[in-house]
Structure prediction request, 230 residues.
Amino acid sequence: MVAGALSSPYGAFCESPDPYAAARQRMVLHQLNARDIKDTKVLRVMGKVKRHLFVSPSLASQAYSDHPLPIGEGQTISQPYIVALMTQVLDIKPEEKVLEIGTGSGYQAAVLSHFTDQVWSIEIRKELAQNASRRLKAFGYEKIRVKHGDGYFGWPEYAPFDAIMVTAAANHVSPLLLGQLKMGGRLLIPLGSTTYYQTLTKITKTPKGNEVEHLLGVVFVPMVGEILDE
Prediction:
């Protein structure tokens, strides 16, 4: 099927002349808009960012399928729907400061950078961090700051953040991350068993305490680090 064969108001989201443009359009239509992804900017960005460039060439043909893919070292790139959902839930505004815990391939950071030019991302696996940093720069995402480090401790030099996105499963929320969140800021994390499944949880910092919203069941690879491995 060619890109022009799909009649949709979102067709313009996939104008890039590459061999995966049609697959990216189908992803937006059938995996995202057909579910509960209704934010038009999220749909537009998901139709623009070339996910196939963030996986190995041998997996490029699967890049727009409705499932995660391996990226090495036991890690995965989340399925497109989860990336879109987490982006939609955080509702990033221009000029907001965003911290991502778990850079992985760099795909989620690339998506976030279309909402704000202030994106920081931490990856505990050195090789993944280095590869993601090189990949993002090569694709024109020069403003994204990538750091090799333990995400449990956050990035205090650039705190406070308006939003923090954790892309690995944890059985508790790091108090250090909560401490680096602005008043009114949002933290999104897969919370629960790091072995089986988690609940995608949104925490909003308010003067009266943290407001907690449980969204849906998810399965992420476990968050690791100095404290979590003890």
In short: Residues 83 and 108 are 6 Å apart (CA to CA). Residues 1-16 have pLDDT under 50 and may be disordered. Strands lie at 69-72, 75-77, 98-101, 119-123, 145-148, 161-166, 181-192, 198-206, 209-218. The chain has six helices and nine strands.
